[in-house]
Amino acid sequence: KNEVEQSPQNLTAQEGEFITINCSYSVGISALHWLQQHPGGGIVSLFMLSSGKKKHGRLIATINIQEKHSSLHITASHPRDSAVYICAVEVGADGLTFGKGTHLIIQP
Amino acid sequence: DAGITQSPRHKVTETGTPVTLRCHQTENHRYMYWYRQDPGHGLRLIHYSYGVKDTDKGEVSDGYSVSRSKTEDFLLTLESATSSQTSVYFCASSPATFYSNQPQHFGDGTRLSIL
Question: How far apart are CA B85 and CA B107, in angstroms?
């Protein structure tokens, strides 16, 4: 069973700060996902990675397969980025294993 | 977006009653999943389907059954609901085949309370 650990659990930062959320996992994977969940509950897929780095707007996701580690970065953070960020790993197509999430609050 | 909808969005019921949650997707995705989300545990896989009439158990499948008679519909049934099944339930779908590069698309969730 893959164990997925995220850090930090909670993060409060000021608007404009550079944010980093970390994810580590225990077993080899086929892909890693970063998801965003806003208050009210909807879950949105941000990235799906199997190697290297992806960028979308102010969001950057990286993965190091050898170290079994991924990071999600937010540049020039904004209050609308406040959400729960969830890391999940995939082995084959039989569902995802999730971390417990990082609660991010960006204060104006 | 995958056009994935869940019904009902909220339900309150009593212990011992049967409950069925419905997930409907309009994207012809092959794979569908049911997850539950609980404080302190995060999201966990209940059951998944890899095609019509093809289903398999996930991490927390006890007390749940599923059915998939059409590509677009995936039903989750609690045969006799218990208070421990109070949770928020999410459905997801994906066109994925093994090692494909397609993310899962999630429904908006069903908040189920069992009294």
Answer: 19
